[in-house]
Specification:
CATH superfamily of the largest domain: ATP-grasp fold, B domain
CATH architecture of the largest domain: 2-Layer Sandwich
Radius of gyration: 21 Å
Shape: globular
CATH topology of the largest domain: D-amino Acid Aminotransferase, Chain A, domain 1
Number of strands: 26
Bound molecules: adenosine monophosphate, glycine
CATH class of the largest domain: Alpha Beta
């Protein structure tokens, strides 16, 4: 079977890496892919949000499955359109993707179905929003309801910061129409964890819990990025907490979607805060995580194509995914300056022998005349598997520390996984 993977980051490279190992895959196409995916299949220079162009390519190559990596094509209606045309797609409809696209929808959905989350209020006019914020002395989080490229969330410590955030969204309109509606919610305290499942709308398969590292700086300092590294399984989630997450969050979410006649099919990502009162949902994403997916793909011990086909066809059985016994860790190598502005086109040295325990997933790279060049902020995700987390960390960092993997201005956090290692000590 031929398979399309939409997107061109580390998440898509890691999906392709596992798909290429499936005996039933006899052609992989990435739209648009990157320097790493070019070694696994064919990169087609097509934007995944250009629904007409993706459809035309699908008619030409006839994939048996189209796997959607990022959220933007889902919001653009890729799943609905390709499905109408008879293609099998891994990824939810635009209606179901509202869980990620509109924070107001997600918050009200959770409220209707008693899913634990931060208390909140929605505002459409600036005066009421400011009045509300002025009357609160506990820390708040201000969120633009619509999609804002992951930047529409401002975590505030003081009422002044919250007022400035409201101004930024509703007066200065920094996030455009995404700020038409603003959610002001209680700031939760705890440790974050990402929970990923594959669901056909009824049953689901859960991946091990993963911990991302969003801020650019060590010890979680500085501005947020797309994610600077991730590891799994996160020991923060013990057996008792895993059970609570299934009972209090995953099952009610799936039941709620069914009650509202929303058919959800694909990967569902739940960003949770583990608070003293228990796990609470911070956000939903209607896709795999990036970089969460990179360690998950190294850990899973199943035929990925089979799982994705079962999901798309509605044939899952609820269970946990089979994994290799051990831990996996991904450290992101970024361009100097990221998440601000940065230079591109730096020559990349990749002097490592990759094997099933060490893979260098490409994110922002492109191949040109046999050379590999940087082409994005997050460039590579060096991902290792080992019998325990500490060893996985050592294995992933070794080629970076010894400059076997290198480019001008390379930056990476040195503390990926340390929260987990401390917890296990
Ligand atoms: P979101 O896009 O909603 O996940 O928000 C991005 C990040 O903001 C999350 O990963 C958290 O670190 C933080 N965040 C969002 N909502 C809250 C909240 N209610 N309390 C504390 N931190 C939050
Ligand atoms: N790593 C965060 C995300 O995928 O949204």
């Amino acid at each position: 079977m031929k398979v399309f993977v939409l997107g061109g980051g580390g998440r898509e490279h890691s999906l392709g890496y596992r798909l290429a190992q499936s005996a039933d895959v006899d052609g992989l196409f990435f739209l648009p892919g990157n320097g790493g995916t070019a070694r696994l299949g064919e990169n087609l220079p097509i934007s995944p949000t250009d629904v007409d162009a993706v459809l035309a390519a699908a008619k030409e190559h006839k994939p048996g499955l189209v796997v959607v990596g990022p959220e933007a094509p889902l919001f653009a209606g890729i799943s609905d359109r390709l499905t109408q045309e008879g293609f099998r797609v891994l990824g939810p409809s635009t209606k179901a993707a509202m869980l990620e696209q509109e924070k107001v929808f997600a918050k009200e959905f959770m409220q209707r179905h008693h899913i634990p989350a931060a208390s909140f209020k929605v505002f459409t006019d600036i005066a009421s929003a400011k009045h509300y914020v002025e009357g609160k002395d506990s820390p708040l989080v201000v969120k633009a309801s619509g999609p804002a490229l992951g930047k529409g969330v401002i975590v505030c410590s003081t009422p002044e910061e919250a007022l400035a955030a409201v101004d930024k969204m509703m007066a200065e309109r920094k996030f455009g129409r995404a700020g038409d509606r603003v959610v002001v919610e209680e700031r939760l305290v705890g440790e974050e964890v990402s929970i990923l499942i594959l669901t056909d709308g009824i049953n689901y398969i859960s991946f091990p819990p993963v911990q991302d590292h969003k801020p650019i700086g060590e010890r979680d300092t500085g501005p947020n990025t797309g994610g600077m590294g991730a590891y799994a399984p996160a020991p923060l989630v013990d057996a008792a907490l895993a059970e609570r997450i299934e009972k209090e969050i995953i099952q009610p979410v799936l039941d709620g979607l069914r009650d509202e006649d929303i058919r959800y099919q694909g990967a569902l990502y739940m960003g949770l805060m583990v608070t003293q009162e228990g796990p609470k949902v911070l956000e939903f994403n209607c896709r795999f995580g990036d970089p969460e997916n990179q360690p998950l793909m190294m850990l899973t011990d199943e035929d990925l194509l089979g799982l994705l086909m079962d999901t798309a066809r509605g044939r899952l059985r609820t269970r946990r995914i089979k994994t290799r016994p051990g831990s996996a860790l991904c450290v992101v190598a970024a361009s100097e300056g990221y998440p601000g502005s940065y230079e591109k086109g730096k020559r990349i040295r990749l002097d490592v022998e990759e094997n099933s325990d060490l893979v260098c997933f490409h994110a922002g790279t492109r191949a040109q005349e046999g050379k590999l060049l940087t082409s994005g902020g997050r460039v590579l995700g060096v991902t290792a598997f080992a019998s325990d987390l500490k060893k996985a960390k050592e294995r992933a960092y070794a080629p970076l520390e010894h400059k076997k993997i290198y480019f001008d201005g390379i930056y990476f956090r040195r503390d990926i996984g340390d929260k987990g290692i401390r917890r296990l000590a």
